[in-house]
Fold these 4 entries.
Entry 1:
Amino acid sequence: MKLWSGRFKKETDSLMDDFNASIRFDSRMYRQDILGSAAHVRMLGECGIISSADAQLIRKALFEILDDIEKGKIEFDVAAEDIHMNIENILIDRIGQVGKKLHTGRSRNDQVALDFRMFLRDEIKAIKALLIDLESILLKLSENNLDTIMPGYTHLQRAQPITLAHHLMAYFQMFRRDIERLNDCYRRMNVMPLGSGALASTTYPINRMMVAEELEFERITENSLDGVSDRDFAIELASCLSIIMVHLSRFSEEIILWSSLEFGFIELDDAYSTGSSIMPQKKNPDAAELVRGKSGRVFGSLMSLLTVMKGLPLAYNKDMQEDKEAMFDAVDTVKGCLMVFNRMLDTMKINKSCMLNAAKGGFTNATDLADYLVKKGVPFRDSHEIVGKMVAYCIEKKIALEDLTLEEMQNFSGHISNDVYDEISLDACVNGRRVPGGPAAESILVSIKSGKAFLDEQKK
Ligand code: ARG
């Protein structure tokens, strides 16, 4: 029998039961549901709304159910619709009449809002831990590649020499902001909605703070309509997760490029690569491609949630049940991607000489030659023009700028003297850029240090 069958004369059609039920996916929140119910019933007892003997009995039975679910002893029932009513049914089966007191002063509307917040809070912690792991790998790789010179690109054309550490520390900054965004999101999620009731709270003298404290919430929601209607916390998380996926996807794109024969900058470990069923020579970067591809699923979840919510009148509407699968898929996808991505990154081989050779080609020191002329008193616009002509000359002769003889150089500008070769060496180009944020080893060391301090803070 359904927990709400009182006003009905007929059973629901089994097709409707199936369509309406969420137990297939929301059973994942069993733990949060039980912990929430346990806190609620303790509060009912302490506030004298039910007897403390009843409260204790219910609480004990709830924890036994939790244990049995974890041991795989319990099968949920589609006819009981969702995780909330499944657990309440099991409780009543086990302890009879007393179990029927659990739902006093509560609605499934505030219950599901509570469970979902608790569930996503846990997921944020798990995703944050994976991001911290990724950041530690980036710091380690950067420390080992402070002088690994490679070309920096704009328009995917070789632009100026940088180091691999500089490039990797750019990703460090992105994922650092992602962690900070998750911290922010957590703070707004960590607000306790129970006590909102169906929409208009309750007349029972409940103590909402007591429940909040047991469940480690920072605050309680301030409006009962908002408490049951709000899904911003999920939308905000989906948006944080989408940005994480943008970052992972761009990084993956580079890994895919870098592992091609054309670049040859890195080689992925066999354990994180795949072969072809027809071409015996192939070694494919499937892990990175999947991460790039899976970003679409996470953006899709964000779109689903925004669309589900945008036209809903206050307060709860059943449409909101659609929030769960989208969020579950988003958190699972991000966790799955990070787990593989971290290992793939940690085990890849870096081909320093390929990176250096690429930086030597493509006139990546042209800006530095122009800057050299400026130091000798030539206005920048003129020096830009002069070096442009020198580049055109070198393209014709198929040589690099530093391969020009001094006489050849002086044909373009009388301001050039023998010191030019040192000034336009790749090492000088990189290590001359000592400004904060620049690629010089000493600048990167500063940001590695601040990165370490940030991670230590986050691990607390
Ligand atoms: N399974 C429902 C959901 O996930 C729980 C809340 C149901 N509330 C209701 N009034 N039908 O949204």
Entry 2:
Amino acid sequence: MQVIHTVAELRARLKSEPSVVLVPTMGNLHAGHLALVEEARKHGSCIVASIFVNRLQFEPGGDFDRYPRTLAEDCAKLERAGCHVAFAPDEGELYPEPQEIVLAPPKLADQLCGEFRPGHFQGVATVVAKLFNIVAPHTAVFGRKDYQQLAVIRALVRQMNYAIAIVGVDTVREPDGLAMSSRNGYLSSEERTEAVRLNRNLRRIKDLAEGGARDFGALCAFAIKDLTDAGWRVDYVAVRNRSGLALPGPADHDLVVLGAAWLGRTRLIDNVEFRA
Ligand code: PAF
């Protein structure tokens, strides 16, 4: 596997590659990221994983400075997973001048995480568009754990006419059900034990909805109370339709329950898809 730090070198390396698949990451890789690489290998012959902690998508006061940077370990993991190129630019390489041109995300980004992380999806859309332009893949692979992000990226591709197929990969979980995340490393051991409560609540909503419950407001309110009583600070727990993340109407049956909540200083997100 080659580790490349500059746009020019990357473009030269990929020039004669007929089938490039991109796996964008912010590094500190875990089994969830490696599942993206494994999926990417089914779609093309040259897998490029980008590793870049994107300042633009962190809200003021967010964890940009303390976000773990583990490039050597990440490259070893990517190589073992069968990745061909790790693209790890520094900030000056990706943002050589102030990034004045940014992409306004679609309306569906105003709610859920977008409501609590102002500017986040603008930063995501902007860096992902840059990576698409730099790498020019025919396919790009993203995790379904960042469900709203995936919806934003699908809209980006549609509305900006990128000829790129977007593949979403199921969330990889710890044995107790906690969704794998680079931010799980922030949790103390007591918080780590408690962390599964978010997923447990989302699964409970799924089970009750599959059993016929349709008052999603009440189901979510119960989950918010359970989390709050256990010491969490809840940003949201919400049921949406899967097609556009709108409030479900009577005709919507393909649904997803999404949640974001703070456990101490760590913000965790998760979602569970269901049909009801
Ligand atoms: O999901 C992530 O890790 C990031 O949001 C992404 C897509 C790599 C953009 O920085």
Entry 3:
Amino acid sequence: MRTIKVMTVFGTRPEAIKMAPLALELAKRPEFEAVCCVTAQHREMLDSVLDIFQLKPDYDLNIMQPRQTLSAITSKCLNGMDGVLEQAAPDLVLVHGDTSTTFAGALAAFYHKIPVGHVEAGLRTYDKWSPFPEEMNRKMVGAIADLHFCPTLSNQENLARENIQKDVFVTGNTVIDALQTTVVKDFSFLEQILNNLDYVNRKVILVTCHRRENYGQPMTNIMTALRRVADAFPEAELVYPVHLSPVVQEAARKYLDQHPRIHLIAPLDVREMHNLMARCYLVMTDSGGLQEEAPALGKPVLVLRRETERPEAVAAGTVRLAGVEEEAIFQMAAQLLSDQGAYDKMAHAVNPYGDGRACCRIADAIAWHFGLRKAPPEAFGG
Ligand code: UD1
Ligand code: UDP
């Protein structure tokens, strides 16, 4: 039997978390030769994920620079990918999501006339500036890709509206596959503060905030609201693993430092993060991935953004858009901290994003596309 050489390309923490289980699934199957190329758009935050999943990349472009610009990331990825694609000559390149690595990886493959599979395809806000630059990245990759792996039916419908109808598969999100391997009942944290928190009698709020379109005033508003929440609710303990971006580090230190119940800590490895999420009271975030993980764990989420490309959990009632204005964020958090009824309404586990079998469906779809299986996989029905 001929083997299909499939190259996964990724560079940031969230891509790695969502691609690692897929890379491992491909490596397990005899019909594929799995090759992995990291751009290292993120360095430490990527390596942490590679360690946890024990994934050893075949190629590492090592491009990260402090305060890197979008153009620098894109051009370094493109240049680096040239040599890699020439040498490896894969049958298919898989990219994930909507980062600059995703866009450059897809474009490089296109230049080499190599088919592209887009994992986490079809998410849209229809606002080109928000999230920035991710909305355009995913649209451009959608235009380039030959295979589209949509987490949900509504993502597939988004692509259909753009006339992308061929080789579109609804698979669920691979992040749920990852989540099923990381959360355990008796977890001991490496980060000592997390072992010492009283998750039963205190209200632990997990915070993350990093998006480029929130830099500046929106981030100031968010941080000010978070401090007000900590001041107003003595039972609240805020845990914020701060993204390594110097812009974010500066804002977090400026507005949230020196508060006895705000814990600014280093980025957590993905196992620590998922287990903290499983134990916390509430999540406040502008992250994409957390909006998918927290609902699966039954945790209410306040989204610190103006819009979301993930409407499924909003419709299910476990995620609310809090926006980027201080007063609205404070009021929404205050309600969830003081009104048990309102909290209970949001705190139920829903899984619109996956059932843990997304990687299996994606691998099956690739095998079918290359004529190695008789039928495509059944769609995820979430
Ligand atoms: C990137 C993605 C964003 C994704 C986010 C996940 C783009 C344009 N943005 O944004 O879609 O949501 O990753 O976290 O692709 N840094 C380190 N060490 C690390 C990682 C980052 O020091 O391990 C610092 C560097 O100074 C770097 C800066 O963070 O220049 C920003 O990283 P970058 O990848 O450019 O942007 P993110 O905000 O992380
Ligand atoms: N995450 C992590 N450690 C942290 C913060 C986040 O492992 O300190 C994980 C989180 O659980 C999710 C992913 O990183 O799986 C989300 O990454 P991020 O918020 O950086 O990017 P986004 O999803 O917004 O693109």
Entry 4:
Amino acid sequence: MPNSFPNSMDFTGFNAPSRIECDIFDLVVAGKLPADINGSWYQTVPDPQFPPMLGKDTYLSGDGMMRLFRFENGHVDFKQRYIQTERFKNERRARRSLHGLYRNPYTDDPSVRGKPRGVNNTTPIFHGGRLLALKEDSRAMEVHPRTLETLGEWNYQGKLRSQTMTAHTRPDPETGELYFFGYEANGLATRDVAYCVANKDGELIREEWFEAPYCAMMHDFAVTKEHAIFPVFPTTSDLGRLRAGGAHWIWEPTKDSFIGIMPRDGSVKDLRWFRGPATSAYHFMNAYTEGTRVHLDFGCGKVNPFPFIQEASGIQVHPQDMAGSFVRWTFDLSKPGERFEATVLGPGGDMPRAAEKDAMKDYEIGYYQTFDPTLGPPLIAGPVGAGFNTILRLEVRSGKLKSFHPDGQSTVQEHFHIPSQTPGHEGYLGFIVDRHAESLSELFILDAQHLDKGPLARVKVPLRLRVGVHGNWIPAAAL
Ligand code: V55
Ligand code: FE
């Protein structure tokens, strides 16, 4: 194969394709891994096996790779395997890419017309005894949790009607249910959204459809003990544009943002839409209901941050002008009208995560990431181009912040929270550190409460691990 991966930020630095499937037994660990860390961290990575057919593409299109760090009694084993989607297998047979623009099948090679084009590269979840690899444009793929062998599409035993399933599902830690949705549920650029619930055994017990105000990139949603919250920010699609071979998404700031809220056990007929000016967000930290008020915490940006979407929209925005701040939006269901309140909780950022036990309820602590320009120039990592270099611990009520950053020549991949077995202990944070100077990776483990004190252990990986997207920690007892 000729090396014709483009020189763009999507394929260089820590975004350079890796294409390595491997096993490494017993990684070298510096420092001491706490004895109560036993379980598996799965992470999904877009990793294109071939250079883009059209000469350029986004990081988001890469073939899904599943990564596994398995922690056992102070030892860590590593495994990485491609997810064998139809698309992956078709391209492997042809020894080249057969797909065109991100989420536009009208730009594909005629040999794959009408065939599935999902890459399942965004989030691994473990629910109902199954490990699933998710991406918002298609159904889940099931992967064997030990061998990482691909087992096939998972469509809830043929019950799921939605053509898509979000990469951001919301498990209720108390009931074991999985809340999720699918947008473009009825096909490309449709406004249909499917709201779904699977019970703790992984059976689909509910699927109800509604129409969003317009077709938007609904990347995440939020659920409280009482409500489901659907965000609609103006990154929009259009079937005519897709048919003409254009971009799936453009940023359309003349449109308002909408937030739909319904009782989570009620009906989509009860959805109430709140409304504000154009904003952009990808991920929600948490949400909870307090009496008649619903709180939603997240990093709120001013404009869609992805360069390929900005380019399709004819704009170019400097990273400093996109960040916005970390906010709490509060919706008062006892008041009429479309308005809501916004409070600033911290500096702008993304990749927010709270401990799983705190999901859906009033909570004290969350962790998210930011880019601190004083640490050094931006380094190429992830879909926005510049990777985050700092992890923040936010005390939500007081706004108190603690932070950790590796050094000026490293970026951090999304962190995950590991619960501790010791009562009252806040648990640990783990994340991959991209060492740009050495082109190697390490997995850091920190005490979550004292993350400013630095790593307890550093798991050395003798490879450059291409920047992944999301991951989830599964305790050994759950597997
Ligand atoms: C995101 C990631 C995706 C995608 C859409 O981080 C949005 C946001 C890795 O794929 O397809
Ligand atoms: Fe995401």
